[in-house]
Amino acid sequence: xxxxxxxxxxxxxxxxxxxxxxxxxxxxxxxxxxxxxxxxxxxxxxxxxxxxxxxxxxxxxxxxxxxxxxxxxxxxxxxxxxxxxxxxxxxxxxxxxxxxxxxxxxxxxxxxxxxxxxxxxxxxxxxxxxxxxxxxxxxxxxxxxxxxxxxxxxxxxxxxxxxxxxxxxxxxxxxxxxxxxxxxxxxxxxxxxxxxxxxxx
Length: 201
Fold this sequence. Notes:
Elements: E1 2-5, E2 11-13, H1 16-19, H2 25-38, H3 98-114, E3 118-121, H4 131-140, E4 146-150, H5 155-161, E5 167-171, H6 177-182, E6 185-189, H7 190-200
Parallel strand pairs: 1-3, 3-6, 4-5, 4-6
Antiparallel strand pairs: 1-2
Helix pairs in contact: 2-3, 4-5
């Protein structure tokens, strides 16, 4: 399996185990949904009729008033009452084991490589954290919506990219399925490709 180089002649040879797998749409869908669900806060909270302050006294007599029976002014059908089925804090986390997670990453990287949406650069070093410089470089490579994967934190590259609307910089160790599906193309450094290969062997 070979990946196209954008800032140099030739191609980069990569392993079939990480970049040559078949695309498993069902697995990728499940893993992406699980990843998004894990990011949900799940902190919504409402009060039941037992938790709302007040309502201890019966509003009026059971009989003789001509009104419907009422035992509490904090009933769910009253204004100011509790909720009948109150929401409580909960976790939306879905279990995805390591084999499934890595399998989805392999399938996504393989599909990106197969459709020529995954490209490689020898390195991405900026002399200064200038958005204009990075934008010009990406434009010369015809990369508009792109995920940039680097092997180590690069403050200059991060500062240059953070004001570009469809550009995201991420470390190879933090590569995740949501980042891969969010962008049209993926640009990796050679060192980042080697790290991902070792991780997915």
